[in-house]
Amino acid sequence: MASKVEKSTPATGSPADLKEKKKERILDLSRYMDKLIRVKFTGGREAAGILKGYDPLLNIVLDNTVEYLRDSEDSFKLSEDTRQLGLVVCRGTAVVLICPADGMESIPNPFIQPE
User: Fold this and answer.
1) Of 48, 74, 91, 105, which one is least surrounded by beta carbons within 10 A?
2) What is the DSSP track for 34-76?
3) What share of the chain has pLDDT > 90, as a percent?
4) Domain ranges, residue 71
5) What pLDDT digit, counting tens, does each position of 17-52 carry?
């Protein structure tokens, strides 16, 4: 005995409903356009540059980009050495952290237990 399957309406609804329920973005990068930002990537690389563009997948375009190189003895520490990269397109899947360059300061790790 076959059961009757009802067709459901699409979850998106009508175009009028979409205008009312416009998605709010979690990360609004528009306020950082044409400002210096710092980006950390998977694998530990860090770069800073002027944000020129982005998309919903967090692919970002940076201009006047500077990469901060890691210390050759300790790969978890950044050295004072930098490398000029210029105009860069960063893949969003590799981005771990985005922060304004002027609003960042280093603090000691609160989770390290004193010996």
Assistant:
1) 105
2) TSEEEEEETTS-EEEEEEEEE-TT--EEEEEEEEEEEPSS-TT
3) 34
4) 30-99
5) 555 555 566 678 888 899 999 999 988 889 999 999
